[in-house]
Every structure is written in structure tokens, then in C-alpha cells.
Amino acid sequence: MSFHSLGLAPDLLRAVADQGYTEPTPVQLEAIPLVLAGRDVLAGAQTGTGKTAAFVLPILQRLDANRPPMRGDGRRAIRVLILTPTRELALQVEESVRTYGAHRPVRSTAVYGGVGFDPQVRNLRSGPEIVVATPGRLLDHVGQRTIDLSRVEVLVLDEADRMLDMGFIRDIRRILALLPPARQNLLFSATFSDDVRRLADGFLTEPASVQVTPANTAAPLVRQVVHPVDRERKRELLSHLVTSGRIDQALVFTRTKHGANRLAEQLVRDGIAATAIHGNKSQPQRVRALNDFKAGRATILVATEVAARGLDIDSLPHVVNFELPMVPEDYLHRIGRTGRAGMDGDAVSLVCVDELKLLDDIERLLGHRILSEVIAGFEPDPRIRPQAIKLRSGMVQSGRGARPALPAARRPSQRPAPSPQERRPVHPGPSQPFRPSLGSRPAPGRSWERRSAPSQPRRPAEQIQSGMPRPRIVLPGERISGG
Ligand code: AMP
Q: What's this model's pTM, rounded to 2 decimal places?
């Protein structure tokens, strides 16, 4: 199926061709005609599926189709508001607006925190029709009366699940109240918690739903592997994987900002060009780190979960989980950074004995085991006992519950705690030995050996193995399933 069948204008098709895209991705195939038809859309799509073009292209076309006259002051009103959870994603989405709108006169700007207010005010005064914004800074502009949202015709919530995880629900509701009631609404989310569904129910009108990534499926072209290793030897193993040439360039995830900095420093001491990116860094520092990585000046970019959201890095060959995420769904977000748009990728997880429970939870979510391979010389010491995982000073994780409890939105994992239902024993059935695939060895050590088979997968295994996920259209009123 080509882009030409989607009903897009010639200049948009040209912009798409300029990017070298030959075929629409599943989410584009399904969402573009719906958005062009003026429908509200609820889309389940992860980063890497081509979701940005899926809403930007048809929005550009609709803007052009009925462009109102200039306002009395010779400027245009804001007609499209796109909300994103992070400034990186805001920048990336606005860049996409420029890319796909390259052959038509459309003005856009991005509005996000952590940078000066005045340049944004100047940009807003110049009359952009499309504004991409993070919620907090947008409300600052509302408070300062430097933005007028009274003429918005299309609202997009991009990565809605992340926005809720980051505690933006109140801001979003305040913003919704400022918009004209008659408008088109699009909500994109990788996952659908009850909170996301409640939000969607509250503002979407008879939405058409598009689900392109079957819930909780890893990108099909990502090879996943676990390297069992002792807690204190992870950095050494990572250095070994890089210096031995098994990993050439990788985005490496740590749980904490402090951990990200420390790891980058240690890798530099090992002679590896490493840099870190996280929420405590200033915007110029983040941009510099990202540019160093993109230009190949940095071999390793160490990032925390939140900082990595919205990073626009194409053709990323490796993602390394230096530490497993506390919430299994975050594993999918992380490894979604590789194997993008039809390319292969490797997702490597360095797992110590403390993390076996987290690994089990991830495998239960995937519905299958991840290949486990011990690297010679890094065999885990079977005498080492599991310890509670330190999330930040004064906060430890033992089992599934973090203590002391912080407000959900402020937890390092940026995810609410699992519901009581989710807390049920993970492996109620009789334990079975894990048979690794050919070429791998099971991890030694009593705790590793005791790993039991994952309980009932949430989806049949053949669905997981079935290659490129097929899009599914859900009728109005029907819900997207999965979580
Ligand atoms: P997104 O999910 O919007 O973050 O997009 C992921 C990546 O896929 C971006 O780097 C896009 O440039 C790329 N992309 C988007 N649409 C297509 C397409 N139809 N064919 C190939 N690559 C695409």
C-alpha cells in the first residue's frame, strides 16, 4: 500500500518522499484517513511506529483545506495544539511539523520548560497555527496571557500514558477547559491504563480506535538477550561488551540520574566515549549530549527512563538495560528505541540476582522467556544473595512495593504502583526448567536456576512471534484491549 492511496495532497506526498518513506506504517495507514475525515481518534501506538507522521500529515492537510482569514492584527490564530510529556518530544514533534509541512506555508512553534520564556513569547506573537507544548509551560503562558487557545480546532495528546505517569493530569484538565468545545481530538498512547481510558472517555467524541502494536509486544525486529552478571560487575561487563566490539554504539538505561552520571564517568575512565542525559541537565547540555551521540562522538549515551522519552535517534543498533526498569511496561518503552521503522536492533539487559523478580515480570508481560547468555569471565557468583533494590537515598524496593510510598507521579519509575490484582503471585503454577534457545547457556547459581517458567502469557505465543503487528480498527464505543 502506498502513501498515494491515503488521500494526502501532492505537497505532503512530496515531503514524505523527501524523507525516503516508500510505504505508510500500519498506524499511518489506519489513522491518516480517519484524521482526514475529521474523526476523533484513540490510537495505541508506541514510539517508533511512525505515529508522529500519522497525525501531523493529515492535520497539515486539514489546516490547509479551510484556512480562515487572518485576524485583524494580520496574524493567524493557534488552530492546532499538540501536547507532549517532555521537551525533547515537543522539539521532535515540532521538527516533524516542519519536515512534513516543508512545501506549504505553515507556521509552528514549540513551547516547553527549562528554557527562557521571552523567546517563546516572541515566537507565539508571530502567529503560529500549530503549537507543540509541554503542559506546565503552556499553562505558564496562559497565566501570563501570552497565548490564546480560544481558536484551537485540533487537540493532540501525544504519549498520553507518559503524561499521566508524569503527573500532568490536572494540567491537562485545565488546558482542556480552555479550549473551544467543538474540536477534533486525537489521543496517542503506548499503553492504556484505567487512567488513560478515563481521560479518553472524558474528552474524545465517538472516537475511532486504532491499535497497531498488539498490547505489550516488543518491536518485532528487536533481538533480546539477558546477560546474567553480578551486581558489582555490571560496569565491567558493559565496558567489555564495548571494547570487545559486541556493542558499537548504545543507548544505556539506568534507573536513577545519579546512576546515569556515575556510569558515564566510570565508562569514560575505562576509555569509552560516554555521556549522560537526564532531567537534571540543562537543555543545552542535553542537546549537546544528544548531538555528540548522534554524530558518533559518543559511543554510549546513558539515560534515565524519563529523559530518553522523545529522544529522536534513528537507526539505534543497541539498547542496553544496565538496570531493569521497576515496571515491566517500561522495558517495552526502552527497547522500542531500537529496531525502528523496519531495522534490526539488539536489546541487551545486564541482570543481577536482585533483579530476577523484575525479569520474571517482564517475561510474563512478553509471554515468553528472553534468551539468556552468560558472558565468559562474568559468570554470576552463586553465593551472592539478592538484595533490595535502591531506587534513591532512603527508598528501597523489596518485592514489588517501594517504601516509603511517594506520590505515584514522583516515583522514579514514573509509574503508579501495581494494583492489588497485579500483585498476585507471579508464578502460581508448578515450576518448569527454563530451556534456553540454542547457543545460549542457562545462568548458573541457585537463584538463577530457581527461575521458573512464566505463568500464562497474556496473549497467545503465536501472536508475539507473528512479525509486523497488524493494525486493528475498533468501532466507536469499543475499547482497546490490553494494558
Ligand atoms: P515515530 O514513531 O513518530 O517516533 O517515528 C519513528 C521513526 O520512523 C522516525 O524516525 C520517522 O522518521 C520514521 N518513519 C515515520 N514514518 C515512516 C515511514 N512511513 N517509513 C519509514 N520510516 C518512517
A: 0.55
Three-state DSSP at 299 gives: coil
Cell 562474568 appears where?
Answer: 378
State whether the beta carbon of 314 lies less than 6 angstroms from ligand 1.
Answer: yes
Instruction: Please give the number of the atom of ligand 1 that sits closest to the Cα of 25.
Output: 19
Confidence of residue 330 (pLDDT cuts 50, 70, 90): confident
Quick one: pLDDT at residue 20? 85
pLDDT in tens, 172-217: 999 999 999 999 999 999 888 888 999 999 999 999 999 875 444 5
Q: Are residues 53 and 23 in contact, defined by beta-carbon separation less than 8 angstroms? A: no
Q: Give the structural domain span for 53.
A: 3-211
Q: Is the link from the previous residue into 404 a cis peptide, with omega within 30 of 0?
A: yes
Per-residue cell: 349:
539487559
Please tell me whether residue 97 adopts helix, strand or coil conformation.
Answer: helix
For residue 395, list its beta bridge partners. 392
What span, in angstroms and rounded, lies between the C-alpha atoms of 139 and 174? 8
Same domain, 128 and 249: no
- Of 160, 178, 211, the position where a domain reaches its end is 211
Pocket test residue of 1, 19, 100, 294 for ligand 1, highest count of atoms within 8 A of CB: 19
